[in-house]
Amino acid sequence: MDLKEHQGKKIFKKYEIPVPSGKVINQGDDLTVKIFEELGVDELVLKAQIPFGKRGKSGGILFVTREDFVEKAKSLLNKTIQGFKVEQLWVEEKLDIEKEYYLSTTLSRTDKSYMLVFSSAGGVDIEEISEQHPDKIIKIALKADWQKQFAQECLDQGLSQKVVTHLVKISEKLHQLSRNDVMLAEINPLILTKQNKLIAADSKVTLDANALFRHKEYQEKVKSGDGLEEEAKVKDLAYVQLDGDVGVIGNGAGLVMCALDTLAHFGGQPANFLDIGGGADADKMTEAMKIVLKNPSCKALFINIFGGITKCDEVAKGIVQAVKKVGIKVPMTVRLVGTNEKQGQAIMEQNNIEYYQDMEIAAKKAIKSAKESK
Amino acid sequence: MSIMIQQETKVIVQGITGSAGAFHTQQMLDYGTQVVGGVTPGKGGQKVHGLSVFDTVKEAKEALDPDISILFVPAPFVKGAAVEALKDNLHAVIITEGVPVNDTLEIIQLAQEQNRWVLGPNCPGLIVPEEIKIGIMPSHIFKKGKIGLVSRSGTLTYEIADHLTKQGLGQSTVVGIGGDPIPGLDFIEVLEKFENDPETEKIVVIGEIGGDAEEKAAAYIKENVTKPVVAYITGTTAPKSKTMGHAGAIVSGNTGLAETKIATFEEIGVLVAALPSEIPALLKKV
Q1: Quick check: B185 and B117 in contact, CB under 8 A?
Q2: Of B95, B102, B236, the CB nearest to A208
Q3: Which residue of B has its CA nearest to A363?
Q4: The predicted structure's pLDDT at residue A84
Q5: CA dihedral angle for residue B253, residue B254, residue B259, residue B265, rounded to 10 degrees
Q6: A354 CB contacts (<8 Å, ≥6 apart)?
Q7: CA dihedral of residues B83, B85, B90, B91 (deg, nearest 10)
Q8: Residues in chain A with pLDDT < 50?
Q9: DSSP string spanning A317-355?
Q10: B152, B137 in Cβ contact below 8 A?
């Protein structure tokens, strides 16, 4: 779960990572120039609080003085950037920039630990840095005694001893906060000011969504921009919107992805990815069908189940329930095998719903149905 | 022989009183697995399918001397439960999905210190066909044989095992390492065991998008595995930057692409199937 910039900065502050002084302004708040006195500065930066992205390039960051603050804040609060309505601004002091660095801690699958990433060429995306200055990236697994190695590599890149000492301290803090269920903590840019101080000018903090039970303050939902994905999430279903016309439902991420690949292999186009997860009951199956059918591009439904912890009889009950109560207006192809398959298949037969035992045969049937129903 | 477990292996079930725990305990017993008891804090003294339930792993260990614990514990309690199992020198199979990564990291570190292995989280477990199952897979699709199978996905493992069995290719051991970004045992550790297992003649690796576990497995196979390997990678049609159900299945930037994984395997001479149904034919070829 991605936090907003100001939420991330609040966490940085708690861990004693220097951040610019600033304030949140919500839509509807009084806009007055008093904020300059409150923050004790003459120049401010307005930053739209929308999910991460290339905010600067799309006009989400504006520099203001007392003269144009109200006007610019108003216009930014009415803007839609990359599909997201701006409802909140983070207003902070403008920094005197000497240099921009990149610093983050992230999960390293390779090392099975956290990893520190630093570059003296900050301010642009890490992907861009990797392409343009691969030699300027330092990556270190955060295992015992990483500080010495990190400091040495920074000195080798020409950073001063004073800056390096401060950098190591900030990195230690980032590591500490990572261990509190933060999958990514990125400071880009980390500013070296003309006064020779390091300050986190931006924050990208991704919390482990699986750990929200111990971070209740962040349980408020972030809008992802896609209605069906959000709706599915609430129902504990994993849904991803795609471009095609065959709606797909399956159990288990790997098998659902495989169903998409199989459709594509035979010339079909999946309309979505939907994983009902392990051990779904009849109601969950019905909910899954409702969501997939809400997508107007879905011209045929392909249900592909190989039950393990999921029981075929529950899935069959869910399908029957959806047929009876929701009504299914597109052709449906069901493949149903695995745990309790005899019971599940019996339910399908009692309700005169056809089913298949082989995924590839069923996939071809679903593609044909989608073409015919257009 | 088999890898990691054998017919004599004694198993306890943590979370045995929950619905999934109880259901799969029965399924494992039916398969012939020596499930000897269970643990649910606060429910010590109860019985499930005639098996004794204990409050702690320590008590179960003293009474039953098990080798492995399988966990059907809600995600927030997995760390505590796994720590108990590992401290009492049991290996752990974690079925639960949704375990925080920080918890998994701590569990893995403790496992290393205790010299035990952890399979999962978010995995289907493992099975030695016709001998023992410690997991949730539908038993009837597996058949004893010479193919070692290791996979990041549960249900896709069933799909592929089913094709193998129907084509007369039985399995020595089938291991699901799970779909989380950080798994306990990974491809390499399981590949090493298959390479050393005299009962395994050929190996199937089932991978998916996200991370670089397949690329690392390919590098390991090139240097260390003499047995023929066939691979299948899913997620070719997955869009970038979207988590595809499994927490670990996400293409970030250019890392984790199915195309790259497929190319990496093909470069070292591992045949990669385009469909699950092609795997048996490829196995017969290598």
Answers
A1: yes
A2: B102
A3: B275
A4: 84
A5: -130
A6: A333, A334, A348
A7: -60
A8: 222
A9: HHHHHIIIII---S-EEEEEEETTHHHHHHHHHHTT---
A10: no
A137-141 and A113-119: which strand pairing? antiparallel
Cβ of A339 within 8 Å of Cβ of B234? The answer is: no
Which token pair is A113? 């630990």
**Could you read off the pLDDT of A192-216 as tens digits, one per residue?**
999 999 999 999 999 998 999 999 8
Q: How confident is the model at residue B95 (pLDDT cuts 50, 70, 90)?
A: very high
Residue A252 φ then ψ, to 5°: 95, 130
Which residue from A155, A162, A113 is spatially nearest to A138, judged by alpha carbons?
A: A155
Q: Taking 90 as the threshold, does the pLDDT of residue B67 lie above it?
A: yes
Distance from CA of A275 to the nearest CA of B (A): 6
**Element (H or E) spanning A151, and its range?**
helix A146-156
Using a CB-CB cut-off of 8 Å, the residues of chain B touching A251 are: 155
Q: What are phi and psi of B130, to 5 degrees?
A: 65, 10
Q: Contact, B267 vs B281, CB < 8 A?
A: no
Contacts (Cβ under 8 Å, ≥6 apart) of B61:
B88, B89, B90
Q: Which two tokens stand for residue B223?
A: 């240097």
User: Would you call B155 and A252 a contact, using CB atoms and an 8 Å cutoff?
Assistant: yes
* C-alpha count within 13 angstroms, C-beta hemisphere, residue A144: 0
pTM assigned to the model: 0.91
Q: Which residue of B has its CA nearest to A311?
A: B138
Contact between chains at A277 and B97 (C-beta distance less than 8 A): yes
Q: Which residues of A are known to be catalytic? A: 102, 186
Contacts of A254 in chain B (CB under 8 A): 151-157, 179, 206, 208, 234, 245-246, 249
Give pLDDT tens digits for B202-254. Answer: 999 999 999 999 999 999 999 999 999 999 999 999 998 888 988 888 887 77
A contacts of B208 (beta carbons < 8 Å): 253-254, 257
Residue A24 in contact with partner chain B when CB distance is under 8 A: no
Q: Are B245 and A338 in contact (CB < 8 Å)?
A: no
Based on the residue annotation, tell me whether B246 is a catalytic residue of this protein: yes
Q: CB B245 to CB A257 under 8 A?
A: yes
Cis peptide before B183 (omega within 30 of 0): no
Q: In three state form, how does the secondary structure of B224-253 look?
A: HCCCCEEEEEECCCCCCCCCCCCCCCCCEC
3-state DSSP call for residue B149? Answer: strand
* Residues 332-371 in A contacting B (C-alpha not used; CB under 8 Å): 337-339, 341, 359-360
H-helix or E-strand containing A304?
strand A300-307
Give the SS3 label for residue A45: strand
Where is pLDDT greater, at B103 or A373? Answer: B103
The percent of residues in chain A predicted with pLDDT above 70, rounded, is 97
Give per-residue pLDDT as tens, B145-195: 999 999 999 999 999 999 999 999 999 999 999 999 999 999 999 999 999
Q: How many residues would you count in chain B?
A: 286
Contact B169, B144 (CB under 8 A): no
Tokens at B127, concatenated? 């099975």
Question: Which residue type, as a one-letter code, is found at position A63?
Answer: F
Residues 281 to 300 of A: which have CB under 8 A from any B CB?
none
Q: Are A239 and A273 in contact (CB under 8 A)?
A: yes
- Average pLDDT on B79-83 reads 98
B3-40 confidence digits (pLDDT tens): 999 999 999 999 999 999 999 999 999 999 999 999 99
- DSSP-derived letter for residue B69 is E
